[in-house]
Structure formats: C-alpha cells, structure tokens
Amino acid sequence: MSRAVRLIAFFAAALVCLPLILAGLRGLPAFGQHTNPYGDAVNAQGEALRHVTNMVAAVNFDIRGIDTLGEEFILFTAVTGVVMLLRGARGEARSADPSEILHRRREGRSEAVTGLGRWVAPTTLVFGLYVILHGQLTPGGGFQGGVIVAASALLVYFGEGYAAWRLIVHSTALDVLEACGVAIYLVVGLVPLFTGGSYLENVLPLGEVGSMLSGGIIPILNVAVGMAVIGGFCTIALEFLEETRQPKEDDE
C-alpha cells in the first residue's frame, strides 16, 4: 500500500471517528465534579462491615476479590512467559546456581555506594514488609509492598554486586514463593465454600478496627499477594541480570 493510499485511509477513518470523539468529550463531567456514588457507598460502609480503614483494600480483597485473583494469575502468567523466553534464548533450563557462575565481569563500586546500599537495602526491606502487613489499615498492601521488597533486593545488587545478589536470590526459592502466594489466595477463597458460604466470603473474626489483625481474611490475602509480587518481580530482575553475564571473562 502506497503512502498516499495510507494517508487517504487515515483521514477517512479520522472523519468517521471525529463525531464520536466529540460526542464523548461533550459528555464528560465538569472539572472537579464528583460522579462516583460507588466510592461514597464503600467509604460509608466499609469500616463498619469489614473493620478496615483502607477502603482500597476492602475493594481489592473483598468487594472485588475475584478480580484481584485474576490479576494474580495475570502476573503469574507474565512472569512465566518472561522466564521461558529468556531462559530459552540462553539455552538454559533454569537460572544458574551461584556456585555455577565462575566467570563474570566485576562491576566497579565506590565504598560510598556500597556503604549506602548496606543502609538503604534493609531499611527498604522493612518498609516494604510494613506496607504489606498494614495494607488493611493504611495506603498500600501486597502489590505495593511486594514491589518495595523486590526493590530492596535490587539495592543489594547495586551496592554489593552480582555475586552478593546471587547469594540471596535463588530462582527455585522465588518460584516457590510466587506459586505459594497465588495458591494461598486461591485456597483462602475456597475454604468458605465448604461451610456453605460464597467464594472469598469472610470466615474469620473481623477484629478491632485499627489493629493489624482486623479485616478477617483481608490481611491473609494481602500477604499472599505480597508473596506473589515479591517472587514475580525478583524473578524478572534475576532473569534480566542473568542476560548480562559474561561467562568468558575472568572474575578478577
């Protein structure tokens, strides 16, 4: 197809779509106008019904908890695809064990970078765990906290180098962690079915509002999501860092 024909087709499609676009723009609410009665209902009833103070957690792990389970499997599938593509391209059945990595270019790091990494990495790890465990109380949760914990593992690589990174990050452990996170979420949802309830229906005491044990099954689901996200994102980081290995260069 020539350039002229493509341009004609583009402008013809634009003319057909332009009235629909303009109609959609005219139907938008005014700037600042509140049009979310669903959110108002959740804010008004969420704390009393679920004993949580983070309404986003109430939506993600209770009101639309089945959707969140679907997101878990999307992440699991995406990480599996990355692993299969990268390991297959390298001709590996799995990421190499640390003991098998004998040759690699040594990255130069200053003492300041290494020292800063030793302070920041554990601090970031603790903060990530805090975000996961307090997901039903404050903004955050398993998704956000899991990414923060994965970032703390990467900070070890930036501060200490690849050898130290591979001593604490093992592909098998990450696979198990991610799979267990998804499995826990699935099983917790199945338990109420054996008592005549609905999938993901709460069967635990709701606890006192404001405590870490409040929210019934929501904290458990938060932790399960955190496990899956930590395993998934650390696995992706591991696979991409494996792509940078220099097996023919002496580690001197």
TrEMBL record:
**Top-level lineage group:** Bacteria
Entry annotated with the keyword Secreted: no
Query: Where can this protein be found?
Result: Cell membrane
Q: Mind telling me which GO cellular component terms the entry cites?
A: plasma membrane
Instruction: Say yes or no: keyword Transmembrane present.
Output: yes
- Where do transmembrane segments lie in this chain? 73-91, 112-133, 145-164, 176-196, 216-238
Q: Which UniProt keywords apply?
A: Cell membrane, Membrane, Transmembrane, Transmembrane helix
Matching InterPro entries: CPA3_antiporter_subunitB (IPR050622), MnhB (IPR007182)
Q: Name one Pfam family in it.
A: MnhB
Q: How does it sit in the membrane?
A: Multi-pass membrane protein
Residues covered by the Na+/H+ antiporter MnhB subunit-related protein domain: 117-234
Family, as annotated: Belongs to the CPA3 antiporters (TC 2.A.63) subunit B family.
The protein in question is named Multisubunit sodium/proton antiporter, MrpB subunit
Native organism = Faunimonas pinastri
